[in-house]
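Example A, followed by Example B.
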Amino acid sequence: MSPNISLENKIIAETGLCLIAGLDEAGRGALAGPVTAAAVILPLDQPNRLQKLGEVHDSKRLSAAARERLCPLILEHALAYGIGSVPAAVVDEIGIIPATKQAMRTAVSHLTPAPDYLLIDGRIRLQTLNIRQQAIIRGDGKSLSIAAASILAKVTRDRLMVQLDAQFPQFGLARHKGYGTPQHLAAIAQHGPSRQHRLSFAPMRRTLLSQ
């Protein structure tokens, strides 16, 4: 089943709140690069605009080409969107879950109009935000708002990783986007980590200890 606006419509019916932002992140499990979050408010009362997003799905279910094609459609037809990114050094300093929450809070802060309800993929809750919210397990496959956010987060981060690849070509970041592939781990073992690597992550520590 494709993501739809059933969850959003249920919230509207139960609360009367209409500015519902979907949130998702990309790069949480990577060994290098930032964790990036996106927030998207869709025009839930405008079916003609929502029809333009009929192919939007969980970013993991889409090819890179499909995500790149859908990204400008989301930007065009969303009521509002925001992006937040937290670099690897901060991930090491505060931990991946706090860094993910920080990226999400930044994404929400860029939304105009501001949301009155948040649908967040996974188990995360943003306790410091005074906004009603709900965590949805596998929400990117259920909520169209979260699925749209998942695409924006993934495309934004992938583009950042391509830029970092030009600075650190020895690691192949443009190919694996910082995730712990055998090729990436071998490059870390050969060259040592860059300042874009998350030294606190267990695979990084094991790779460096094995040198």
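Example B, a separate protein, is given below in the same form.
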Amino acid sequence: MSQALQHQTGDGVPAAPAPVAGRDRRGARWRGRVATWVVKLAGVLVTLSALELASRTGALPRQWFPPVTEMYAELAGLVVGLPLWVEVGRTLGGWAAGLLLATVLAVPAGMLLGASALAFRLVRVVIEFLRPVPSVALIPLAVLVLGTGLETKVFLVAFATFWPLLFQTIYGVQDVDPVATDTARSYGLGALARFGEVTLPSAAPYIATGLRIASAIALVLAVTAELVIGAPGLGQAIIVAQSGGAITLMYALIIATGLLGWALNAVFSAAERRLLHWHPAQRREAGL
């Protein structure tokens, strides 16, 4: 009885809940995130240990697959040197330019096609013809027209990333709640105001997902262009190391490329969570 009275105000009205429950929920979420990271890290360590053992015991030919510890030692030496970061910058230059070009072209086009069923029907056949064309198949044409420099890399990245951005934007616009649009219209909002207040916020999560997907595709195409046509960047450095018989260096550069892709995905995911924290999907993921 005394505990119950302690949670009531003087006039018998129950007092507001103590903030302890909120702290407990935040603590539980934090512990859950730490546990998730521990599991992920354990999986990575087990995989790397297995590869190390396979190389040391000869299950994998050490001549072509050196121990993982040697690869990471080589990578550590590269990290403190300037050449690695120069190559990373060159790769990121093509990645960023191609992704930016695709975004500038695809998002407005997707907004238009998503808002107009007639426009989408008019260009659907052309889209369905061009979309399945692999970007790699365009390398001979791109080299012939643009040469083997940055321009070809940007073109391949932009072509490959244009399609996921375009379709995500179309889906986002088409998924706008018609009730929300009608309500905005009934309140006298013009077309531009409805676009800014209803259409764009509803399509933003789709566009963000498209950007995150396109980011990974852009890195793949940038490195592929460097591998195939010899454009400056991490891909070219990998080929040079392989040609010179520096196998450990080659693997270190491959690991650096993988870590770069992981870092870019983490950056886009964090930006998506921060900018779209109001969206129900992000709130569910955060446990709110």
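On Example B: The CA atoms of residues 253 and 259 lie 10 Å apart.
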